[in-house]
Fold this protein.
Amino acid sequence: MIDNNQNRSEKSRDQMLSGSAWMTAGSILSRFLGAVYIIPWGIWFGNYFFRANALYGLGYNIYSFFLIAAIAGIPSAIAKQVAHYNALNEYGVGVRLYKRGLVLAVATGLICALILYFGAPLIDGGNPNVIPVLHSLAWAILIIPTMSLSRGYFQGYQQMAPSAISQFVEQLARVAYMLITAFIMMQVLHGSWVHAVAQSTFAAFVGAVAGLATLGGYYLRRREDFRHLVKHSNNDIHVEARQLYQEIIAQAVPFIILGAGITIFMLIDQFTFFKIMRAATNYNYATLSDLYAMFAVNSNKLIMITISLSSALAITAVPMLSEALTNGDKTEIRKQNSNVLALFMFVMIPAALGMAAIAGPLNRVFYGTTHQALGANILTFSSIISIPMGMFVVISAVMQGLSQNRRAVKFFAMGTVVKFILQWPCTYFLGSFGPLLSTGIGLTVANWLILRYMNRHFGFEKNMLDIGFRKIAKYSLFMYAATLMTVYGLNFIVQLIGNPFGRVISLIVTLIAVGVGGMIYIYLSLKSRIADMILGPRSDKLRRLLKIE
């Protein structure tokens, strides 16, 4: 029995690592494309760059909230419920769930797109330039719910590759359209920067079409496999259509709130920052727009690369935990909870500290030398805040996988109240750093409440997590110090012969520093065997490859 449990645990860990690898690759590549486009895009917008980026962010935050409402948590709910029925060998019920979910996805997408398009003048925050941006984004909401639902269906079978690849194709098409239209409108036609931003946001629709087509191709290639599973199901369970809709909606509503968690915090920033700063300072709108762009858009694009690591873990964890819960395997649930947290710490802590160490040159690579000192400091602080943000993404998804949706929503609501209370004093006294600090504290409160509940009712392998956290934190801090010293050392050397603040030089410094820090962390984690706890037997192969004893 012990061997069977161990084998099951090893299999689950392998599935989680494999799924996380696919989702991480897809998320990182997509986020990287979503950040790197800003270099040529910003150059072509010229003096309008910061205003254009702020407008992009103002529109996108509102769109993100409507998109989450349109998706309505259905993809994650479908993934969870499909995994549940698959574990019971009732694949036919999962197919019916998917078809019923499609009806809901099309309906919610249409309703939310219409509200966003015709309601744009009411939610523009007093900035008429936001209206054409919202109009262009409404088209994407028509398609993305169906695409996201299809990803959730594949994830219910623990097939993460289709989701990851379609995500990358979606982003590639989106970025290509953004850059082509930005170049034509700003450099060839010398047109309006507002209309150019609207075309850049319309690229979300173009990307969605490409992503949905990719998923359609995958489904057609695997259609016979799905049909075979349905044909050989137990077919002991018959679920009425009304009950299917009830299951989807009951699971979806908490996913809306928790999935929109970080977006809700960003919307709080968007609708309070300008008002608080007008009371605290005499800055004009252009200056406030630049400050908003630096913390809410510029740094956010970059830290989302690291937070995407957490999203990948969360997406992988939900169906696996749902399966363990269906089987009533408490030991497996405890191990899964511990594996998720350990993998989160192993990846997220060094990633966040590493980005903080290279914040100076990295900020110059993407955003040039305008406000470079303030921009680098904001990125450094944002990198630290990305840890509680990433943790919330992961553990709220774990709670959903364990069917603790209402409690997760309750704990998030408490964290949101803390955010509201601290928003005014933090922003008033700390400016652009204030919203980030209130977000960090609010999410830390929510995280603590969730972790305390999980520990009391499901448990963790505490010895494993305690040893893992202490070693990972120690090695991450060592890596941070080495990376920071590399940055300062290279800047000092370059300063002796030229300008250390150019984009190309900053890119070279960034790459070298990342290489140094990454190799140090990999060496220490493999040498100390802490990687074995996370990666299992794969660590031995890496040690042999790198000749580490």
